[in-house]
Amino acid sequence: MRLTTLGGLTLEGSEFQQPLPLLLVTYLALEGPQARRVLAELFWPDAKDPRDSLGSALRLMKRAVTGSVEADRSRAYSELPCDARELLTLLDAGDSEAAVALYQGSFLEGLDLTLGEELEEWVHATREYLAHRVRTALIQVGEQEASQGQPTEAAQPAERAYLLRGAPEPDPEDFQRLYTLLQAGGSPIAAEVKREAESFGIPLTTHLEEQEPAEQATTEETSAQHNLPTRSTSFVGRDPELLEIAKLLSNSECRLLTVHGPGGVGKSRLALQVAREQLQDGAFKDGVFFVALDALTNPELIPGSIAEALGIDLQGKEDPLTY
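User: That's the sequence. What structure does it adopt?
Assistant: Structure tokens below.
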């Protein structure tokens, strides 16, 4: 059996449907063992005898669904699997794609119960917290798509993130990340995001809009100092990697830096973005150059390709590596 709380409240593998006992088990599954006194006052604040009401609910659950809840004289707990708990585990592990796939709706969506103020606040706060974290995961999925040169596909999770039910208002950073993805992917929602952000006093620009003037100036000033290909789409995300690579390159002892990763994750785009930023910052006075090696079939051709990109004229029979 498994508690399903994302998009509703049901107990898979059971016909038991009474919402308040199920909510009690959900609370225990997410919050861990609780004192009976705390549960009684939380779930039955207006009852004549809250402890008796709790005892009745626990006995009902034990009879109806064996193993759903356990209790002794002082506390109660539940070890039932719960999709909200699984979601948090995936999010904590950084598995954004699996977390997004698991999220089928807001926490306890459609729950029709009259709850005490404290319990209602718990439901609302949990709903907002889970939706906020899923929105962050959706943005991360979109940024991963964008880093692989797929801006249109990247806009889809960004649209879902913006329209996510139960989530709090995006903070300035989320507004910026959403707008960048939506604008780059040509989503009609981009304009709506910008209007809403500006209504909160949050100005938005795309990464491309921010970088183009500086990049143009750099190109004019250092046209002979680089051969970087023109970027066809905006670069979004990967800020931690950009910062880490820039830090490594700033070390004078770093003569060679290799970026590892599976094919298709955007290593080349990341390296080119680093090169553009290094060029813009004037980190290398002699210039920044790009050498494409993917078409080479013989490693002996590498020195010649590097020399050609650098404008070095190799003559004679001397080993190119001695230049």
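Residues 218 and 281 are 9 Å apart (CA to CA).
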